[in-house]
Write a structure and sequence with these properties.
single chain; alpha+beta; 2 domains; three-stranded antiparallel sheet; three-stranded mixed sheet; 6 strands
């Protein structure tokens, strides 16, 4: 049995690219939005989030989603976390059958982060959306942050947020 450490993006990439699948005996995704938010916060704070248990299923029964080419690695433990990671990054795992349902799930599991916490607070604040947060430029959908691949894109996002706030002190705080 091999132990391998993967980055979140690598796990999501495997879920999207059919490198891993969900066996027939796994339940559907049942986490509520609060659990997805807590997973995001745990990752940010570098808390342990558990491990994934993958089973090399070559030569066994078909997976739940057997669509032509099938992955030989099945997620035996960690399907809820893997799907939640896909939601956080906005990338549909191939075992999620319906695109419209996925789009509704993206709305329902939309985690936001306050990228400019109050003075003295060095920790980001995570929350689920509400009308007030949607209007407050400090609250950004975590997908917008996680979908950036370059530091320059994060700087541009921060500049955009700071310009919407219009407070020069905020600019100093954001880039301190």
């Amino acid at each position: 049995m091999a132990l391998e450490q993967l980055k979140v993006r690598e796990i999501v990439k495997q879920a999207v690219s059919k490198s891993v699948d969900v066996p027939e005996f796994q339940r559907e995704f049942v986490w509520d939005p609060g659990q997805v938010k807590l997973l995001a916060e745990s990752l940010y704070r570098d808390y342990p989030v558990g491990s994934l248990l993958l089973w090399d299923s070559s030569g066994h029964q078909e997976a739940k989603t057997a669509q032509g080419t099938q992955a030989s690695l099945w997620i035996v433990d960690g399907q809820q976390r893997t799907t939640a990671l896909c939601l956080l990054l906005g990338m549909k795992p191939f075992w999620w059958p319906d695109a419209q349902e996925w789009n509704r799930a993206l709305e329902r599991y939309n985690v936001m982060v306050n990228i400019l916490p109050g003075r003295g607070g060095d920790q980001l604040e995570f929350a689920l959306p509400n009308p007030i947060r949607h209007r407050d430029p400090r609250w950004v959908e975590i997908r917008r942050i996680l979908s950036t691949e370059k530091v320059e894109d994060l700087i541009l996002l921060t500049q955009e947020v700071v310009s919407q706030i219009g407070d020069p002190d905020t600019m100093m705080t954001a880039f301190a």
